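Students often ask why we bother predicting the structure of a whole assembly rather than each chain alone. The short answer is interfaces. A chain on its own may look different once its partners are present, and contacts between molecules only exist in the joint model. In this exercise we take three input lines together and write out one structure for the complete complex. Read the inputs first and try to guess which parts will touch.
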Amino acid sequence: MFTSARNQLSGKVSAIQRGAVNDEVEITLPDGQQVVAVVTHSSTESLGLKPGVDAFALIKASWIILLTDTAGIRLSARNQLSGTVEKVTPGAVNAEVTLKLASGDLIAAIVTNESITNLGLKAGVAASAAFKASSVIVGVKA
Amino acid sequence: MFTSARNQLSGKVSAIQRGAVNDEVEITLPDGQQVVAVVTHSSTESLGLKPGVDAFALIKASWIILLTDTAGIRLSARNQLSGTVEKVTPGAVNAEVTLKLASGDLIAAIVTNESITNLGLKAGVAASAAFKASSVIVGVKA
Amino acid sequence: MFTSARNQLSGKVSAIQRGAVNDEVEITLPDGQQVVAVVTHSSTESLGLKPGVDAFALIKASWIILLTDTAGIRLSARNQLSGTVEKVTPGAVNAEVTLKLASGDLIAAIVTNESITNLGLKAGVAASAAFKASSVIVGVKA
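Now the answer. The structure tokens for the assembled complex follow.
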């Protein structure tokens, strides 16, 4: 399988909360971390999502916000993964940041160059990747 | 009308599924393809959306994921349009990919350069553009 | 607090509309403008969001669509802030546009270079920033 989504995390569906139009799907990764996705209810049904099913979460690099100091604030973004900056690749306007999680997984995020400067992002800095449950695409093997 | 959303697809509302906060709006394009949008219920009401109404879907280029091999996987992204890569414009970090659909419509997507390499994206390659229903903005003429 | 989200607007929660999975949260800014966010209901509860609570809205620059001519159209995007282009920084594929609102607040948006040309975006041009309620991340101080 090949997609342009730089972040593809595999795990098992661990919970589903039903809604009228949208459902909330929780995927537990092998290291115990959880990714929460909001998908339309018809997707839950057509993909056969239910607890125990193997599934993966796709998160595009541009949908991720990076945080360097989370002390004292709480965000509505359901997904927040902590790690250490591995690499920063600056461009003309945007930069790509690679974050290494404790599990060893790498997360790619695209942020503006100004944010790189403002946050002091560089290799070795502790940072978190936050993304909304509604940004996550869920996939299953057919 | 002028917006920075590179993808603007016009059609007619063909179905609406009501929810408490969000509604799911289906727009059928002239070539029979459908685009599904999730919008807040108050937008459905203020725009007067109902079956038969002319409407358009706005999808920003950075909200699109490209897939080159969909065999064997299924995604929760409700919108998946198939086509052929027309052009790739690489930048320092991101690249712009133009996809030509069977209908002749062009879809622009922004992905990272690394995805261009990983997926082997270049003119002539078959690819699909996937985007979530929650990414789609619906518009009507006043 | 440090995040890579270029747009951070502070205000007070002025209304909450409950749903089964998602809630709609309205934040009123000091100048009277409102930002609407859709967050999962569990976030509303864990953040203690209710009318009167201080909160801020985070909107990433790449989640914003710019409009230069809104006469004659209406969009489902719940958030539309009007202003004047302050600065355009072009890159290889994307450009960063800074919009100054009547309140004096600055909004940063990332759009493709082609949109800069199509819309004729340059300092002094009137433009609006549109973004979906589902794109907004809500935060509170702990």
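Check your guess against this: Chain A has a mean pLDDT of 92.
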